[in-house]
Specification:
Distance between the termini: 24 Å
Shape: globular
Strand content: 25-35%
Number of helices: 8
């Protein structure tokens, strides 16, 4: 099996593995140097879900400090504002503050018969006392279906766990310090610049008519440098940099939390040498079919994706609008954009040599996997001398594409 085939087969092997428990991760996290907290997981590695509960990442307590609801920030309809010190966030209006033991940090939890047993909700922690096995902005999927992650705001971090991955990211996107805008993270849009792809909140979470000047994502050579500390340019512009592969990726966003969430979605194509300039995102392009995130424009009004039937070496199948045929390392793939992509980190269809393909799951079975920042569904079918691998973030779309391979 070639190196590329082994990498692609890893997406199926990775999704079949079970995630480690929170207790084991907590022990490992405490052994890691705190300075590594800002490093995200390596791009291109097989995704193994990490379960990090609120209690697992807290090293020490916050004393008797208690968070209170502010009175001067308007919360979106159906939501409520929570805060601690000068840091604020939004949670659904039916979430309530609970304390689950003496000395433990209070959190806001969704309605539940036993909220302390389920480890769902939102809580603030001191950033100096917080450590995690994943970087800020990364959403990790647990065995119980819960997605968890954290972001930075001022001297605190907001940690969130929810059974709905989109809800967890939406809450995290609202973390801010006083005076910063409230970001709407309910819809995220994908941009593909060939060498660089990433997701941002639609209209940067500020609305179509907002002043979005200064917000962008770009990349340049890292040249062996480490990412500098985040820079607060003004009340509504924060610059966060992160090394991804051999590129220094810069995100200028309304808040540090949003910048961290955006950077967690970044993919760098090392084979594409051009760098992405720091230019504002054109959302009139980003929201077109085939260029947006699932649910934001990839489907017709009927809800059925736009498909085109194609053929390769006697195998007929269908691809989505915007996917292109490419020869990558001697293998044929159909993925978005002009450049070859790691199918472990993106959607697409890949043709693999069936004689050397060693999956960890049965033919026709879909399993969740993908990067730590983006859940993907993967499955394959055998057709002649090919194993046709299908990967997509929407389970129903993945199942449809898999069933159309003939």
């Amino acid at each position: 099996m070639s190196d590329l085939e082994q990498e692609l087969a890893g997406v199926l092997a990775g999704v079949a593995e079970q995630a480690p428990g929170a207790v084991g991760l907590a022990d490992a996290a405490r052994r890691r140097h705190r300075g590594r907290r800002q490093r995200r997981l390596a791009v291109g590695g097989a995704a193994v879900a990490l379960v990090v509960g609120f209690g697992a990442v807290l090293v020490g307590g916050l004393g008797d400090d208690r968070a209170v609801d502010p009175v001067d920030d308007p919360a979106p309809q159906g939501w409520r504002t929570i805060s601690q010190d000068d840091v604020r966030a939004e949670v659904p209006a039916d979430w309530r503050q609970v304390t689950c033991g003496e000395g433990e940090v209070p959190r806001w939890s969704p309605p539940s018969e036993d909220p302390c047993a389920e480890w769902r909700g939102a809580a603030f922690f001191g950033s100096a006392l917080y450590d995690s096995m994943v970087g800020p902005g990364v959403l990790a999927d647990g065995e119980d279906g819960r997605s968890s992650g954290y972001v930075t705001a001022g001297d605190l971090v907001l940690s969130v766990g929810a059974v709905d991955r989109d809800l967890a990211r939406r809450i995290l996107a609202t973390a801010r310090v006083g005076g910063q805008p409230v970001v709407d993270g309910s819809t995220w849009v994908s941009f593909d610049r060939g060498a660089l792809s990433y997701e941002v909140p639609a209209w940067w979470g500020l609305g179509e008519d907002a002043d979005r000047r200064g917000y962008s994502v770009c990349a340049g050579p890292a040249k062996g440098q480490e990412a500098p500390a985040p820079e607060q340019v003004d009340a509504s512009h924060v610059v966060v940099r992160q090394v991804v592969g051999d590129r220094m990726v810069t995100a200028s966003a309304p808040t540090q939390a949003v910048a961290e969430l955006v950077l967690a979605t970044v993919e760098v194509d090392g084979r594409a040498r051009s760098d992405a300039p720091c230019a504002p995102e054109d959302f009139s392009v980003g929201l077109l079919p085939g260029e947006s995130t699932p649910g934001a424009g990839t489907a017709e009004a009927s809800g059925v994706p736009a498909l085109a039937e194609v053929e390769n070496d006697g195998v007929s199948f269908s691809i989505l609008d915007g996917w292109r045929e490419k020869s990558c390392g001697g293998l044929v793939q159909y993925t978005p954009g002009p450049a070859c992509r790691s199918i472990q980190q993106s959607e697409g269809i890949q043709f693999l040599d069936a004689s050397s393909f060693e999956p960890a799951m049965d033919e026709g079975v879909l399993r969740p996997g993908g990067s730590s920042a983006r859940r993907l569904w993967a499955g394959y079918v055998l057709r002649g001398r090919w194993a046709v691998l299908v990967v997509h973030p929407d389970k129903e779309t993945a199942q449809t594409l898999l069933g159309l391979v003939r």
